[in-house]
Structure formats: C-alpha cells, structure tokens
Specification:
The chain has 235 residues and is mainly alpha-helical. The protein is 61% helix and 3% strand. It is built from twelve helices and two strands. The protein has helices at 16-25, 44-47, 56-69, 72-77, 79-99, 105-122, 132-149, 153-156, 168-195, 205-215, 222-225, 230-234; strands at 2-5, 8-11. It has a two-stranded antiparallel ribbon with strand order 1-2. A hairpin with a 2-residue loop joins β1 and β2. 17% of the residues are buried. Mean pLDDT is 83; it is low at 228-235. GO terms for molecular function: heme binding; iron ion binding; monooxygenase activity; oxidoreductase activity, acting on paired donors, with incorporation or reduction of molecular oxygen.
Amino acid sequence: MTLKLGQVTTVVLSSSVLAQEALQKQDLAFSSRAIPNAIHALHQCRDSVIWLPVDHRWRCLRKILNSSLFSGARLDASSSLRRRKVEELVAYAGKCCRDGKAVDVGRAAFRTSLNVLSNTIFSVDLADPSEDTAQEFRDLVWSIMVEAGRPNLVDYFPVTATLDPQGVRRRMTAYFGRVLELFGGLIHERLAMRRQKKRAAENDALDALLNIREEDRGEIDRMCLVRPFPHSLSL
C-alpha cells in the first residue's frame, strides 16, 4: 500500500514476499536512506557514512571503520577502558547514595557512554562535569538529537526547503558548526603532538585515522576526520 505524506509518497511493504524482494533480491536499489532536510546542514550528509549512498566512497569509509574503529582486536584492546568507565559510573552512584543525593540515571548513563566513545576515539573525557567544554558538548549533542527527531514540515513539502519555516536547518547548521569546531580543535592538537613526537604512533582511533590519511590522502580527508560520531550518538 502507499501513503501520501504531504508531497512524499511512502510505500509500505505489508507481505513477507515483497519484503524479501526489497531487502534481499533488490537490496542495493533500496539500501540508500531518505535524508531529512536537517541533515543537509553544512553538507553533513555528504561526509557521514550513515547517510552516503552505497558507492565507492561509502565502501571505502565503511572499510576504514571496520578495520580501524570497530575491529575485534581494537574492541578487545579497549575492554579495560570500558570496564573502568563502568566502575566510575558505579562509584558515582555509590557516592550519591552516601551523600543522600538523587541519581539522574539518564544523565549518568549518557555521560558514561559518551566518555567510552570519546576515549576510544580521542583519548579524552568529553563529559567531565568539571569542564565547561564537556557541558557545552553535551548540550550540543542533545540539541542535535532534538532537532533531528523533530517533525519537519520541509521533509513532507520539499518545496518549502528554501524558506525553512520551522528554522530546523538553521539551528542544525549552528549546532553542527560548533561540534565540528570542537572536533577540529582536538584533531589540530593531536597533529601538533604528532609533529613534536609527543605521542606514540597509534594509541586510539584518531591516531589510526591520521595514519591512514598520511599513507593515502585520497582515501580519507580532513572533513571525514572531524565527523567521526555526531550521528552515532543520536541514532
């Protein structure tokens, strides 16, 4: 059956036969995602492996992710990091109990998940409550999640994209710009450390990506480096 959502025609596969046809036999034709207008801010969809169509660039980036970020060996090597962050979460909950304070479970779990991810990639805690930058980053991630999940009139009436009547894309442009600025600062700092020989050749995912970039600049560029996980946090 089909549904007409504004100017967008949506096809619903309501039988196992058609689902098999679309997901197995014609999977390449149906593999690309419909990109919300908000994700076009700062051309985010052009550099994110989540939104790229299945082509050479997508396969290249996916290969890098599988081999350098999410390989079994790298995940095993970071198991102690994950264990330490969980221990910190338990210790935080215990301290709150001793002090008679309520535990914001959602915020604590978000902080732990973010720190595991940021340490895996950047070797830093982006959610350290004592740092203003961490608070700003948490607020930015939350704002991106809210805007990405907000029903947007432009997605159903593309003709209104230029007007951006709800201001979603305008706000997302500001949020993405700030996130990329923060990531760019971390990458610039790491490049300076590598030039001064203050860091080992490969300690985290960012070092691995920089090594790939130095070996073959055509395989991964700086814009891909500064977009490692904004969407993985919100999806």
